[in-house]
Amino acid sequence: MKSVKPFEIFQKILKNGSTKQGRLLGLDVGYRYVGLAVSDTRNKIASPVSVLVRKKTNIESMAEDFQTLISRLSLVGFVVGFPFSLHGQHNLEAVQVRIFMEELRKTGKLDGLCYTYWDENYTSKCVEALLHPLNLHPVEHKTIMDKFAAVGILQGYLDNMNRKLKSEELSIVK
């Protein structure tokens, strides 16, 4: 498993061709939970999948869960939410995201897969604003928050990559 630039994963999907379209998994990595979202087969729309419980002792189990999702959903890569800073300084959340991805890589169970980091700033705040009026039970609220933060991360990535692709196609036509 290796880290690549955002457009590299998207290009990998395009090279697969329409006969075997790969999908992407969005990750919202938190201290205790990892929210998951998956793209559709055309890589246009992100949908919530689930939330994994994160502990220091269960990284092997999480890697196995990812293996299952990879085969079941035809995944080709991960889009990992990352709290980029305007000033280039990394905060604690950024460090823990990198540590999580490094621990996953070290398991060796996801070799051959690529991942990229994508700006997650404000995704949780947007989801929080939508959920607040619903007065959900705290556990239900947290689960939905994490899943839909992952949706926001992945959808932002997909929108950006599809815009970039369309822009490149238009510049070739001209």
From TrEMBL:
Keywords of this entry: Cytoplasm, Hydrolase, Nuclease, Ribosome biogenesis
Segments forming domain YqgF/RNase H-like: 22-127
Gene3D superfamilies, A to Z: YqgF/RNase H-like domain (3.30.420.140)
GO molecular function: hydrolase activity; nuclease activity
CDD domains: YqgF
A GO BP entry: rRNA 5'-end processing
Residue stretches spanning the membrane: none
Any matching Pfam family: RuvX
PANTHER family, per database record: POLYNUCLEOTIDYL TRANSFERASE, RIBONUCLEASE H-LIKE SUPERFAMILY PROTEIN
HAMAP family cross-referenced by the UniProt entry: Nuclease_YqgF
Protein name: YqgF/RNase H-like domain-containing protein
Organism in which the protein naturally occurs: Dendrobium nobile
